[in-house]
Design a protein that fits this description.
alpha+beta; eight-stranded mixed beta sheet; five-stranded mixed β-barrel; 18 strands; 31% helix; elongated
């Protein structure tokens, strides 16, 4: 039967229920037990509630399966237990309706734990049928767009998001046990900063000012280090106005922390402990399967320098090729083609080179350290080699999971670095950082030696739950417009013209 006809049948039932003087959407349920608990209460009376997942009428008896967040249970309705009108009312039920039932827990002859229903109440009448083959939809984005249906049809999807919640809880507990203070910084910022990315812009009417959705909380967290905090962290939403792929969504979850009197070597040790324990808390051991690959999160993780990695994969020694002109020349000689539109400057080009020839090949958890200083405008130069930043990234399956570095706390150098970035912007560098004068003023008051760290939470969750894209671990990812919804009301029925 076509969807429109099925909906008409349900609407008829809804009107019939209302004619009988029954409220199809009561405000309260008298549920006393969750289904998981009720299944253990053999011989006792329970009151459970849930969504109807199966309806099997057999004359004077009807079997119904209902489901709540804890599990499923079978309901046994019989004409002998209920009066005639009460039993006949079952014909108004459909798959997807919510009901509340009271009765004794017993086992059927087939051994099925069930509720022998002595009374029941309709809680919600569903007027849209559930799809029978959700994964068979031609437009796979419908699963994300109608996540509420995805969660109903596919219990394994709900389990992924329950695991996500556990991972975030683990991360928060880990930081608090290490003595970090959780803080909140502005989502709306008068100047975007802390990362190299395009911002979303908006306007505040009362103040008549342009504001930006944050691309990072880094500069605010470091202001707190200036102010006397020594261990701060934040788990928050960041927003970047950029393209989408399996690793990128315009709205995403970041966790950042800053630790005074520490360097990036200290943060490597902390990262190993955190990520390995997170993996173990989810899988029970250090091994996690991701798309057929066995990932071993047992510390210590492999370590390789940025220059070594690039040299191994394309033969370019960045200790000898040190200017933008030299690098462009050697790329041409080696016939290495990169996506160079809007890319200018030695640092940004080395970053494109690394992402093209090296990073995708890293499968197991690996620390890549000592990135070119020119690619990290907020990082302090290494004491051993000032052309490199004291920095690292944790890479796994080609994903950048963590980025960390020694924070630049020299206000004069920081201002110069930002001015160099802005000069590259005028030259054509599409994504560049801008000068934040208030942050420079904060540094002028003095910031102790500090190491900072940022993690893409969605990427970590996707790895630990074996999900191909971060869209599968974001409840409501950003999607292209739904053209099929044009001219339709929220219920799916055609709106009036």
């Amino acid at each position: 039967m076509p969807l429109e006809d099925l909906q008409k049948e349900r609407l008829k039932k809804l009107k019939n229920i209302q004619r009988l003087g029954i409220n199809p959407y009561p405000a309260k349920s008298e549920r006393k037990q969750e289904i998981f608990i009720s299944r253990k209460m053999m011989g006792k009376k329970v009151t459970v509630a849930g969504r109807i997942r199966s309806l099997r009428p057999h004359g004077k008896i009807t079997f119904v399966d209902i489901e709540d967040a804890t599990g499923k249970i079978q309901l046994f309705f019989s004409q002998s237990e209920l009066n005639g009108e009460k039993y006949e009312f079952l014909t108004n039920f459909d798959l997807g309706d919510f009901i509340e039932t009271s009765g004794e827990i017993f086992k059927t002859q087939a051994g099925e734990i069930s509720v022998r229903v002595s009374d029941y109440k309709l809680l919600t009448k569903s007027i849209r049928p559930l799809p029978s083959a959700w994964y068979g939809l031609e437009d796979v984005e419908e699963r994300y767009r109608q996540r509420y249906v995805d969660l109903i049809i596919n219990p394994e999807v709900r389990k992924v998001f329950e695991t996500r919640s556990k991972i975030i809880k683990f991360l928060r507990n880990f930081m608090e046990e290490k003595g970090f203070v959780e803080v909140e910084t502005p989502t709306l910022q008068p100047l975007y900063g802390g990362a190299t990315a395009k911002p979303f812009t908006t306007h505040h009417n009362t103040l008549d000012i342009k504001l930006y959705l944050r691309i990072s909380d880094e500069l605010y967290l470091k202001r707190l280090i200036v102010g006397g905090f020594e261990k701060v962290f934040e788990i928050c939403k960041d927003f970047r106005n950029e393209g989408q792929d399996r690793q990128h969504n315009p709205e995403f979850t970041m966790m950042e922390f800053y630790l005074a009197y520490a360097d990036y070597e200290d943060l490597m040790k902390l990262t190993e402990e955190m990520v390995s324990k997170a993996a173990k808390s989810i899988s029970g051991n250090y091994t996690v399967e991701f798309e057929g690959e066995k990932l071993n999160f047992k510390p210590p993780f492999k370590r390789v320098s940025f220059n070594q990695l690039v040299m191994e994969n394309c033969g370019i020694n960045l200790d000898k090729v040190t200017t933008e002109g030299e690098l462009r020349k050697v790329l041409k000689e080696k016939e290495i083609k990169l996506e160079m539109e809007g890319v200018f400057g030695f640092g940004p080009i080395t970053d494109e080179l690394y992402k093209a020839v090296a990073r995708p090949k890293i499968k197991q958890p690996t620390f890549v350290y000592d990135y070119p200083k020119d690619s990290l405008p907020l990082a302090k130069g290494s004491d051993l080699d000032p052309k490199k930043a004291g920095s690292f990234q944790l890479i796994c399956m080609g994903y950048e999971i963590v980025k960390a570095y020694n924070e630049l706390n020299d206000p004069i150098e920081q201002e110069n670095r930002w001015r160099q970035e802005m000069a590259l912007g005028k030259k054509g560098l599409e994504e560049h950082q801008v000068l934040d004068e208030d942050y420079i003023r904060a540094l002028e008051y003095g910031m102790p030696p500090t190491a900072g760290w940022g993690m893409g939470v969605d990427r970590l969750v996707s790895l630990l739950t074996n999900q191909h894209t971060i869209k599968d671990v974001i409840l409501f990812p950003t999607l292209k417009p739904d053209k099929s919804a044009k001219g339709r009301s929220s219920s799916g029925r055609k709106g009036k013209k």
